[in-house]
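Section 5.1 Outputs to date
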Amino acid sequence: MPDKRMLFPDSFSKIKNGDVAIKIDKIIRSKRKTLGLEIAHDASLIVRVPHNVSLNDIQKVVFEKRDWIANKQRFIRERRLKAFPKKFLDIEEFFYLGESYPLVILENAQSPLLFDREFQLRRENLLSAKRLFVDWYKKQASLKIKERLDFYSDLLGYEYNKFGISNAKRRWGSCNGKGNIYVNWRLIMAPLDVIDYVVAHELTHLAHRNHSRKFWNRMEIIQSDYKQRRKWLKENGHLLMIDNCC
């Protein structure tokens, strides 16, 4: 009989059958009625459950779905390896607003990093290329995402308190109890309609705190194709990176 113990954030254990270890990175409890498994864009396992579900029940479902979890995580990890890290070489492609633009390294560029239908990097700044790109992306994210947030805030009549750019590892956006909205700066690499999905998603949390049926019904009114936008992000989020940590 296989050992059905799991690897949880506060304990270490292995399933002896095949020596497979399953780690649950996060358990999120809410008013939802069913248990859901999510493999995030970094291959971490997130379990979403109703408040009254026991740890033993969670373990049982995770064990039953162990093959699906392992295959999904393997697929995501292999896909991520193909996407980065960036090497900052001539003609290497970088995303901005869903489009891919080449990097051109110049001896006498006007500035350390300039964007003009291509990314122009001054050769003497090669060693600081990653920092320059991150700073540039963050600046563009602050401007463009704030613009979209204000547009949808006026359109929907949802007033947020404060906006900020986040450096989260697993979340594209968040809305806290104070009405503060934070969006991952990496999202500036995604198409505008995907940015709009995340913006509308977080604004809708001002009216519906969890992912209830009312929340998703409201999202469908706002964006009838929100499922396609969300699917794009799940399938392509690994591309919106510079390396394993950025």
